[in-house]
Each structure stands twice: as structure tokens, then as C-alpha cells.
Design brief:
By secondary structure, the chain is of the alpha/beta class. It has a single domain, classed as Collagenase (Catalytic Domain), CATH 3.40.390. The mean pLDDT is about 95. The structure holds zinc ion.
């Protein structure tokens, strides 16, 4: 198990697990080896749905707003997981990171809905 969750609104846990499982199917071996904690909290004041930070070589902490609807929730998780992959492979350019994260979020979400 390389995913754990914490924070408010624990019912979000199921979505985090299913988003992670879906993302994992299409991701590199390196991603599967890493540890990710998804932490739910109130991000209203930060005016973002989520953000992520690298804790050490093998673990990341992803913050996700606790009150997202299902679609936003999945999209945010796919988006932040993409940033984790980018950290692993050393993608540093912010514009490239965001463009890629939005594309992958879109593709993953529509593929998932199609199944
Ligand atoms: Zn982003």
C-alpha cells in the first residue's frame, strides 16, 4: 500500500483510493514505488483545490480541499498525482508541469467516466 489518507471528511478516502488505483494503471513503475499521503483540509482561503509537496525522496504529501464535488475531486487528485510523477522525473518548468497536468487530468477523467 503506497497511499494513505488523513484529515477532515474521512468519507473522501474511497475516492482517493479509487483515483489512485486508476492513475496507477497508467503510471510508471517508479510512481508505484512511492508513498503518497492525501490530506484533506479546508483550502478555501488558499483559493486552490489542491497542491502537493515532496517530503523526501520516496514520499509526497498531497493536500486536497475537503469539500470538492466528485468530478473536481477526481480531477484534482489526477492533477496532483501528475505533479508527483513530474517530480520523480525531474520536470521543473512550471508551464510544462501545469499544461501536462491539465491534459492528463482531462484524459484520465474522461477515460474513467467512459468505463
Ligand atoms: Zn498544478
Amino acid at each position: 500500500m503506497t497511499l494513505c489518507t488523513s484529515g477532515d471528511n474521512y468519507s473522501n478516502h474511497t475516492i482517493a483510493v479509487s483515483a489512485y488505483d486508476w492513475f496507477n494503471r497508467f503510471s510508471a513503475y517508479e510512481f508505484k514505488q512511492k508513498e503518497i499521503e492525501v490530506h484533506y483540509c479546508d483550502l478555501t482561503d488558499d483559493n486552490v483545490k489542491g497542491w502537493c509537496e515532496q517530503v523526501d525522496d520516496d514520499s509526497w504529501l498531497v493536500h486536497v480541499d475537503k469539500d470538492l464535488d466528485n468530478e473536481e475531486h477526481y480531477r484534482t487528485l489526477f492533477h496532483e498525482f501528475t505533479h508527483v510523477v513530474q517530480d520523480i522525473f525531474g520536470v521543473k518548468d512550471n508551464e510544462v508541469r501545469e499544461t501536462q497536468a491539465y491534459q492528463i487530468e482531462e484524459t484520465m477523467y474522461s477515460d474513467m467516466c467512459a468505463t
